[in-house]
Amino acid sequence: xxxxxxxxxxxxxxxxxxxxxxxxxxxxxxxxxxxxxxxxxxxxxxxxxxxxxxxxxxxxxxxxxxxxxxxxxxxxxxxxxxxxxxxxxxxxxxxxxxxxxxxxxxxxxxxxxxxxxxxxxxxxxxxxxxxxxxxxxxxxxxxxxxxxxxxxxxxxxxxxxxxxxxxxxxxxxxxxxxxxxxxxxxxxxxxxxxxxxxxxxxxxxxxxxxxxxxxxxxxxxxxxxxxxxxxxxxxxxxxxxxxxxxxxxxxxxxxxxxxxxxxxxxxxxxxxxxxxxxxxxxxxxxxxxxxxxxxxxxxxxxxxxxxxxxxxxxxxxxxxxxxxxxxxxxxxxxxxxxxxxxxxxxxxxxxxxxxxxxxxxxxxxxxxxxxxxxxxxxxxxxxxxxxxxxxxxxxxxxxxxxxxxxxxxxxxxxxxxxxxxxxxxxxxxxxxxxxxxxxxxxxxxxxxxxxxxxxxxxxxxxxxxxxxxxxxxxxxxxxxxxxxxxxxxxxxxxxxxxxxxxxxxxxxxxxxxxxxxxxx
Amino acid sequence: xxxxxxxxxxxxxxxxxxxxxxxxxxxxxxxxxxxxxxxxxxxxxxxxxxxxxxxxxxxxxxxxxxxxxxxxxxxxxxxxxxxxxxxxxxxxxxxxxxxxxxxxxxxxxxxxxxxxxxxxxxxxxxxxxxxxxxxxxxxxxxxxxxxxxxxxxxxxxxxxxxxxxxxxxxxxxxxxxxxxxxxxxxxxxxxxxxxxxxxxxxxxxxxxxxxxxxxxxxxxxxxxxxxxxxxxxxxxxxxxxxxxxxxxxxxxxxxxxxxxxxxxxxxxxxxxxxxxxxxxxxxxxxxxxxxxxxxxxxxxx
Lengths: 520, 301
What we know:
The structure holds two protein chains of two kinds.
Chain A: H1 2-16, H2 19-45, E1 49-55, H3 60-86, H4 89-93, H5 96-106, H6 110-121, H7 133-152, H8 155-161, E2 170-172, H9 180-188, E3 194-198, E4 210-213, H10 220-240, H11 245-252, E5 260-262, E6 268-270, H12 273-309, H13 313-317, H14 322-358, H15 367-371, H16 374-401, H17 405-424, H18 426-431, H19 436-442, H20 448-454, H21 462-490, H22 500-508
Parallel strand pairs in A: 1-2, 1-3
Antiparallel strand pairs in A: 3-4, 5-6
Helix pairs in contact in A: 1-14, 2-14, 3-5, 3-6, 3-10, 5-7, 6-7, 12-14, 12-16, 12-17, 12-20, 14-16, 16-17, 16-20, 16-21, 21-22
Chain B: E1 3-14, E2 17-28, E3 32-36, H1 43-50, E4 58-63, E5 76-79, H2 91-101, H3 106-119, H4 135-147, E6 153-157, H5 165-180, E7 184-189, H6 192-198, E8 201-206, E9 209-215, H7 216-221, E10 226-232, E11 244-249, E12 253-258, H8 264-271, E13 276-283, H9 287-300
Helix pairs in contact in B: 2-3, 2-4
């Protein structure tokens, strides 16, 4: 035991001192950070799209502009409501008129706030179509003041105060020359991103409506402008047919399904956003598990090959038995791996706790609680150890056969071919964690750790946990029984690595006997 | 006489190949025993069985009085033919590590390692990584690693290979020193002169079988009487001399093996006038000759 401990200790210290280990420590955090931050930064740094509109109808473009302005004011008002409710510092900086109106608006439904904003923009303070009694009074009392504030607020200031205003993403330009030839040139020279042509009779049909751009992949602008134009056209059509907008809305109202989940005790419970996240959180753990199992068991292999190519192995074997050596290495690398994985988990937890918040995600977006869910963390650690033990047995046996790291690298594709499968099935299993595919694959030992981790949101039945784990443990024992036999012979072997058939003969041979090498 | 090592009819097969075939050997305590033999003769396999890296298929091994060699591993020291060091470990730590594997306590291993390294002129390298060592230095470090726990029986496989004359002398002194302390040293070599200089006993193995075993004098006596000459001139006439059975001619020195009943004086008389003789010496054959003859005879059979 003492010798096993000594070997494990040396392995641990030697590994901790390598640059590779520290690279591994920072690798995952950097990857995680990049995966979260880069898309957000990209989104944020995207230039505002400049577009032009040729309006042959004479009214639609202006109507869309008003709708856009209404939407902007609405989102701005929602922001001030949020500041008011959270007691944010920014709230105190707002003009007094807003500090007066916001508490009143905060009492309204959000749809009413949107309508309120639209009417403010249209300066229709008296109409109050579709507004509740309270909202109508608010409009009459404060509408004009809000309009003055909004229309005198410089665009740049608005953009800075309220990140959601459309001007941050789409800017309508009004070129003096609105012939299509001139606009085409502007598109070609990248002065504008795209331009819209509105037909003469948009209410009648889409004839003459065009969208021209030389970017075919980014549909955001077309969808955004198109949706607003459609809404205006639909409103006109309803007016022409004398359809009450309320009635129209009611007709178009889709059937909405309230999502509920059934708990273990058979009760109904509302589904929150975190439940959906919870469903997908295991996928992140599967990735982490995969990288951990793969890199740590590979560490054991490289390490064995190095000891062999360094010719240290025989000196060691004069002091310890090959089984003590093997046990020491497994333990040493396992502790190294646990250190590495532990640091990753810590970063994963801290990262999910603070990074989304820093980037402005709502507090309900609670990834950290998921990242530290005991079921996930527990499964992760157990499956890391079991997965490591299984793959380590195979890789250490392979390592013992190789004389150079290159030999070992040549054998890796075979292992990768097996390891890649749980990655490919990750999404289907995540969608249906208790389906036939998921259940079947749980019982294939090389996949068990990954698939069971993948299914953790299901979660699988207790008997499945027990049965698959038993099967996995048995496979690990068999793998080590065979791996140790190969290791015992392989580590003293020089020359070219043996063929697989020869290795199989070693496995069948009784302990202590050394079969002859036929291929020389 | 106490025996450090007894091999009793040990046999080791690798598949159909018999690497060591029914070998018996007795190594007395406190002597230097030379294991000789051509490449692939079974030396390393025999040594590995003594170190319980392999187990014999038949026969028994008694090491330091124990019939289970594994139980006395900590009292043995072994320097394999294929030697290496952990490149990224510091020299002092490495030597101490091998001491600890042999059962030394951490602090003691450290103290001894430093004392040994300083004693062998490697004091400056204690805190340097072993990859910075020259080949000769790393071989010294390897030898120190096998000696740090003061083993009672040391097995050195080719300890002189790749060493310059100064370091050969250092290693030879280490071996002689151990003998003086009453410890037993077994070493294998290809260089007969080295074996001749320090061995008390010789064990010669070829194709897995013991060919010769005994004191250095016994080993030599097993060979033919010979005359050694240093000469100038055409050596081809040597073979044509009457009463000469065989000649081993190196150009300026020749070993002449005489037929039964030939008087060396007659040979000298015939040589005078034909060659310029600078030295004429009658003696027992060299170990080199014994080796060539034993191995050659075996391969003829």
